[in-house]
Q: What sequence folds into this?
């Protein structure tokens, strides 16, 4: 069975690579196709024996994938440009993220009749946006650079920031009562602060060591590429072992990774990007093959309503509030509000929640928690993937209109 799955994945990856440019012109993304492939192939390969979700291997693959994607995406961000737009991602993270958790929690509690802790767990699972799915718009130059940078930074940091919040609510739900507030404040502070410090240190030190090795001709190009993956894994695993937040650490390690030579930076990026993308597609395939068939019998109309609310109102209202007072146009605000795709981070958070709380026979609201999460991620993969081209066309149209307006104004000034 394992050999069959590997062969299917390899053939799908090879086939998609041959036609990637033609397929992407139709606004069809790789995650969409690999989820569909998993949904079609999963029942045929696994038959009536549905593989268990409580697999440590599956969780480790999801963690490694998310870490590599965060590291690679962060390493591609120009810090000097980032500081020019820092107000937007900071607003989304400091105001938009907690408001999204709050709105999602209240909505889930009222709509499903859940207790507050379970409602909060569901809301946090569906709060982080996915850097892998956001990549579908990062390559489209029609979008304003500050908007693309904002989405990249938000996708990179919000899953690491949301993780301690998820662990807090999972612990409260498992314990059935509140814990000491100072204990949890210390826990969250340690995770975020320690993760940030270790990540920044790993990125800066790693970059300097790579520079030194290249300067003395100790490091051939092959190992310059391999070092990006090694450094990202070291930052993640080392920080987790020391009690910090590995996802925050790995993103900041990539952000602060600085080598003096641009050619070296390109080598560092290209290998990690390829490996991260490969693992992302594997996760989306397994999501379609395992998660979707498991959740399908559990789905209800109320779950569909909440999933759509999670992708729209629960995301858009907090983003709109967080951007009050900024000079962004209405179109820019709508763009940031809509592009909050849910993907690998939400899959990982769902796995973590099931691992800590138990599975179908141990969680009171298992059907609602699992079914709603899977349905929201599934809808996000397709809705956000298909909408990238539409937004690109609208943005290009607005740019042409703006250029024509500026040209007309200049003409009138010259020939009143």
A:
């Amino acid at each position: 069975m394992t050999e069959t799955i590997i062969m299917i994945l390899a053939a799908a990856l090879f086939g998609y690579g041959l036609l990637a440019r033609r397929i992407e012109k139709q606004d069809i993304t790789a995650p969409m196709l690999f989820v569909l492939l998993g949904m079609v192939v999963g029942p045929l390969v696994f038959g009536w024996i549905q593989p268990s979700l409580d697999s440590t291997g599956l969780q480790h693959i999801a963690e490694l994938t998310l870490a590599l994607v965060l590291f690679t995406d962060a390493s591609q961000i120009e810090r000097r440009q980032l500081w020019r737009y820092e107000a937007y991602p900071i607003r989304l993270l400091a105001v938009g993220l907690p408001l999204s958790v709050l709105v999602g929690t209240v909505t889930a509690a009222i709509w499903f009749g859940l207790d507050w802790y379970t409602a909060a767990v569901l809301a946090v699972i569906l709060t982080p946006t996915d850097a892998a799915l956001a990549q579908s718009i990062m390559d489209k130059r029609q979008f304003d650079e500050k908007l693309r940078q904002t989405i990249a930074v938000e996708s990179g940091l919000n899953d690491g920031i949301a993780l301690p919040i998820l662990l807090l609510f999972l612990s409260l739900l498992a314990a059935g009562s509140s814990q000491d507030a100072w204990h949890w404040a210390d826990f969250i502070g340690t995770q975020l602060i320690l993760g940030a410090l270790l990540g920044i240190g790993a990125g800066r030190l790693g970059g300097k060591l790579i520079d030194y090795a290249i300067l003395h001709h100790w490091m051939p190009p092959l190992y310059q590429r391999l070092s990006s993956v090694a450094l990202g894994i070291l930052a993640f695993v080392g920080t987790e072992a020391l009690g910090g937040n590995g996802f925050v650490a790995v993103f900041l390690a990539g952000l602060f990774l600085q080598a003096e030579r641009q050619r070296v930076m390109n080598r560092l990026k290209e290998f990690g990007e390829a490996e991260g993308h490969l693992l992302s597609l594997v996760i989306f395939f397994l999501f379609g093959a395992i998660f979707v068939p498991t959740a399908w019998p559990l789905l209800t109309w109320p779950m569909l309503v909440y999933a759509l609310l999670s992708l729209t109102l629960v995301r858009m209202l907090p983003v709109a509030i967080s951007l009050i007072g900024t000079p962004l146009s209405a179109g820019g605000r709508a763009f940031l509000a809509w592009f909050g795709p849910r993907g690998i981070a939400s899959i990982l958070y769902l796995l973590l929640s099931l691992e800590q709380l138990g599975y179908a026979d141990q969680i009171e609201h298992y059907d609602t928690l699992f079914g709603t999460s899977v349905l929201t991620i599934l809808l996000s993969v397709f809705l956000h993937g298909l909408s990238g081209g539409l937004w690109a066309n609208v943005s290009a149209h607005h740019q042409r209109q703006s250029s024509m307006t500026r040209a007309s104004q200049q003409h009138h000034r010259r020939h009143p």
Summary: The longest helix spans residues 366-414. The chain has one domain: 52-414. Residues 52-414 form a domain with the Na+/H+ antiporter like fold fold (CATH 1.20.1530.20). The chain is about 80% helix and 0% strand.
